[in-house]
Amino acid sequence: MAGMKFEYDENGGKFFYFFLSVYALILVPATYWLWPKSEEKQSTHLEDISSYPPCRDKYHLLRASEPRRRRRTIFVKIVLLAAWIILLILAYRVSLIETEHKEYDPFMILDVDLEASISEIKRAYRELSKKHHPDRGGDPEKFANIAKAYKTLTDEEAKNNWKTYGNPDGPGVTHFGIALPKWLVDHKNSLFVLLIYTGVFMIVLPVIICIWWQKSARYAGDHILIDTIKIYHFLLTKTSLISIKRSLLILSASAEFDRRLNPMIVDRPSDNIELPELFRELTNVQENIKEIPFQQLYSIKARTLIYAHLHRLDSLSDNLEKDKQYIVRRSINLINEIINVAVQLVNVQHIKHSEIGPKLETIENTMKLSPMMVQALLNTKSPLLQLPHITENHLRFFETKKRTIKHIRQFAAMGDEQRRSILRSITDEQYYDIMNVLAIYPHVTMTVSFGVANDDDEHIITTGAVVTLTMRLHRQNMSSLFSKELAINSSALTNNTLNSEGNEEEIGDRENRDKTNETLKASTTTTTSSKGWNNKSEKKKKANKDKGKKKGHPKSSTKAINKQTPTNTNNNQKKTIKNDNKDSSDDDSSKHSDDSPTNSRQRHEQTRDDLNETDNESNNNNNNNDDDDDDNTNENIPNNSTPEQSESVISSNKTKTPDDDKDDDVFLERFQQQQRKREKLETKAKISHRVFCPFYPEIKQECWWLYVADRKQHALISVPIYLCNLKDDDEIEVKFSAPKLRGHYVYTVILRSDSYFDADVTENFSFDVQTAKKVADNHPQWDFSEDDGATNNKADDDEFATESDSDKD
User: How far is Cα 597 from Cα 512, in angstroms, rounded to an integer?
Assistant: First the structure.
C-alpha cells in the first residue's frame, strides 16, 4: 500500500502559485467596488444657475469638497494600478518557474528508441555502465539509474509495474507539496511563527471585532443611535397629543447632538458667548425649561440652531454655521424615526385595545417638521415664501381688496400680467427665477379605488374584512397649470390643503353635513318609487317568454310563469332590505364622520344604486336561463332511466359553465397583476425629482408620506408609506381592516410632502360596512347520516363479496 510523504517547497515556487491565486481573488472584486465610477452629467438644476444669494451659497458649499474628493479619486486609482502591476509581476515570476516533476522513462535514460530490441538495450547498457561505473570515476547515482532502467526493460515484472504505476518498483508513496517556504516550518523559527499567529488571530482580530461590535450595537437603522430611539419612546408615551412646538423640543433632544455620544459634535468655549445672544434674538427657544432632557445644554444648543435655521438668520459665526448644517442634515432621518416610533406605539395601542397612545395629530405635526427644515420656514408663514426673492414685504401685495392669494396653486393659475403686476418691485431676472422655480413645483393628482380582494362581492365590505385600497398617483410640474385656469374655487382649495385648519374646517364640515343629509333624503325617496325597476324586469321576462314560445318549449314558458311570483317577492324583499340599509346608513352617518364632500357621496349613492339594479336584472336573466337549462337537461334524460341516472345526467350537463371559466380567468389575471406589482416594488429604483431648497445644505430628493386616516376619530388607519420614487406615475396598494361595527364610514387618504409646503393632496372615500354572513353549518353536502353510511358500507360489501358468500346465498 502506498504511503504518504510531505514535501516542503525548497525553492519557493509553489508559494508563488498560492500567493498569486489569493492575491487575484482579492484584487479583482476590490477593483470593481473601489474604482471611482464615472459620474453621469446631470442636468443643471435651478439652484446651480439661480441668482438668488442662498442658492449661490449652497452651490459654493457643495463644491467646497470637490478638490478633496478629486484628490481621493486620484489616490484610489494610483493604489489600484500599483496593485495590478504587482499582480502582473507575480504572474511573470510564476511563468518562469520550471516544473520539477518528471516522469520516469527508462528509454531516455539508456538513450535508445522506444522500439529497440533486447540486444540493442544490452549494448547500450554495457556502454553506459563502462562509462559511468563508480570504479572508473563515474557518478554512482547515475550508474544506479542506468542499472534500474536496464532492469525495467529486461524484467517482465518490473516492466509491467512501470507501465501500470509509472515506477518499476510498483506503487510508490504519495507526494504532497505545501505552498509554504521551508523556513516557515523550520523548528528554529517555530517560536517566531507562533508569536505571529498568536498576535494576529488571538489579539488583533478579536480586538477589531469587539470595537466594530461596540460601535454597531449603538446604532439602529439609518445610523440612528438606540439612545435616541429610547428618548423618543419615553417622550411620546408621556402625552398623546403633541404640537409642532413640542415636536421641535423632541427633535432637539436627540442623542446625536450630544458630544458624549457623538464624536462629531464639538463644544467650544465661544458657544457660551454666542448662544445667549441668539436667545435674545429668538424668543421661542425656551432655554429656561426644566423638563428632562430639554434642559440639557446640548438640547438647548440644538434647539437654538434649529430656530435660527427656521428664521433664516444669516448672522451666525462660522463655527455655529457648521454646527447648524450638521443638525439640519441629520434632522430628516431623525424626524422619520420619530414618526416610526409613534406608529409603533399606535400599533401597540390597537393590539392592547388601549386608549392611551399618540393621536393622528401627533404624527401629522411631526411630519410637518420635515418641510420646515428643508425650506427653512415656520409652518405659520406663507407658503409663497418658498419661492426665491419673495420676502415678507411682498406678501402685502398678494392680499388686497380685489384678490387674496394664499396658496402657490392660486399664484400659478394667475395670468402672467397679473403675476408681474404683483411683483413689480423686483427685477426681470428675479421674476424669471421665481417663474422657473414655480414651473418645477410638484402638482400631484390622486385617484382612489377600494374593494375586498379574493372575494365574490368585492364592493361589499363586511365587518372585519380586509379592504384593499388602490391609489393611483400622477405627478407633474406646476408648469402644466400656467396656461389653464383652476376649476377649483378658493374654498374648495382650502379644504383640499392640509395647512388650512380651524374655523374653515368646521364651516366646511357643517356645509357637507347638511348637503349629505339632503342627498340621503332624496336618495331614499327615489328608491321607494320602483316602477321603472319592475317595468324593466317585466319587459325582460316577457321577452324571455316570447323566445321560449318561438322555440317550441311549452315547459319553459310554464315554468317561467310559475317562477314569476317568487322572483317578484324576492325583488320586493331586496327593495325593503335596501331601504332599511339606507335608513340605517342615515342613522349611522350621524354617528360617524360626515366630513366627506357632497359630490363624492352622491357619486357613491348613484354607483351603489346602479350596481343593485344591474345585480337584480342579472338575477332575473339567470333565473330564466336556468329554466331553459333545466328543460334541456330534462329532455336529455331517457324515459326509462332511474332517479340516480337522471341526477348523474343533470350533474354532467352542469359540471362547468362559461361563467366558471371567466371567474378562473379573472382570478388568474388578478394574481398575475399582484405578482407584477411586487416585482416592480422590488426592482424599483429610488429616483425622484430634486427639490428646490436653497437653505438646506444638501441635495434633497422629493419624498412623500402616504397613509389613511379617520378624521372623525382622530385615528391612523394604515401605516404611513414613505415614497421616494414618485417620478411620474405610481400605483400603491394599502390594506386595512374594516371596522367591527356596521354603518357608514368616511376615511381620508393623505399624500403629504416632506419637502414642500402647500403640495399635499387629500382624497375622501366613503363606504358602508355590513354584517358578515354566517357560514352554513348544516349544508346538505356535509350531512352524513348513519343510515347512509350503513347502506354505503353494505353496497361495498356486496361489491367485493367472496365465492363462499355467494355459495351461501
Answer: 6
Per-residue confidence (pLDDT) for residue 99, from 0 to 100: 56
Q: Residue 688: which of 755, 618, 758 has the closest Cα?
A: 755
- The pLDDT value recorded for residue 186 is 73
- Residue 780 grid coordinates: 346538505
Reduced to 3 states (helix: H, G, I; strand: E, B; else coil), residue 739 is coil
CA within 13 Å, CB half, 798: 7
pLDDT at 8: 55
CA 182 to chain centre: 56
Compute how many other C-beta atoms are within 10 angstroms of the C-beta atom of residue 478.
19
The pairing of strands 704-710 and 461-462 is: unpaired
- Choose among 167, 286, 293, 277: nearest CA to 228: 293
DSSP helix/strand/coil, 766: strand
Whose CA is closest to 372, among 720, 693, 688? 693
Q: Please, which residues have CB within 8 angstroms of residue 24's CB and are 6 or more apart in sequence?
A: 87
How many residues are given for the chain? 809
* Residue numbers of the chain with a pLDDT score lower than 70: 1-13, 39-42, 98-102, 172-182, 185, 454-456, 482-686, 775-809
- What pLDDT shows up at residue 761? 94
Strands (E), 652-760: 704-710, 715-716, 721-723, 729-737, 743-753
pTM of the model: 0.66
| Cα–Cα dist 726/702, whole Å | 8
Calpha distance 291→674 (Å, rounded): 50
Long-range Cβ contact pairs of 140-148 (< 8 A, separation 24 or more): 145/109, 146/109, 146/110, 148/106, 148/109
Dist CA 144 CA 106 (whole Å): 12
Tell me how far apart the alpha carbons of residues 552 and 564 are, in angstroms, rounded to a whole number: 20
| End-to-end CA gap in the chain | 79
> Considering all CA atoms of the chain, what is the largest pairwise distance in Å, rounded to the nearest integer?
137
Q: Is 451 helix (H, G, I), strand (E, B) or coil?
A: strand
| Identity of the residue numbered 150 | Y
d(CA 257, CA 293): 12
Assign residue 706 a region (left: φ > 0; alpha: ψ between -120 and 50; beta: otherwise): beta
Instruction: State residue 141's pLDDT score.
Output: 84
DSSP-derived secondary structure letter, 242: -
The cell for 393 is: 414685504
Q: What is the spatial distance between Cα 655 and Cα 259, in angstroms, rounded to a whole number? A: 76
Spell out the SS3 assignment of 66-96: HHHHHHHHHHHHHHHHHHHHHHHHHHHHHHC
Instruction: Residue 248: name the closest of 194, 285, 273 by CA.
Output: 285
Residue with grid cell 358500507, as numbered in its chain: 793
Strand partners, 710: 715
pLDDT digits (tens, 9 = 90+) for 397-417: 998 888 889 999 889 888 888
Q: Which residues pair with 721 in a beta bridge?
A: 706
Fill in the DSSP letter of residue 168: T
Contact predicate 466/452, CB 8 Å: yes
- Residue 277 identity (one-letter amino acid): E
> Which of helix, strand or coil describes residue 449?
strand
- In 10 A of CB 592, how many CB atoms? 18
Of 759, 733, 717, 723, residue with least CA distance to 363: 717
For domain 106-167, give the CATH number.
1.10.287.110
Domain coordinates in residue numbering, the chain? 106-167, 187-218
Answer yes or no: are the C-beta atoms of 471 and 731 closer than 8 Å: yes
Nearest-angstrom CA–CA distance, 346 and 6: 68
Q: Give 616-620 contacts, CB < 8 A, sequence gap 24+.
A: 616/533, 616/537, 616/571, 616/574, 617/536, 617/537, 617/540, 619/567, 619/570, 620/537, 620/540, 620/541, 620/567
Answer whether 152's CB lies under 8 Å from 106's CB: yes
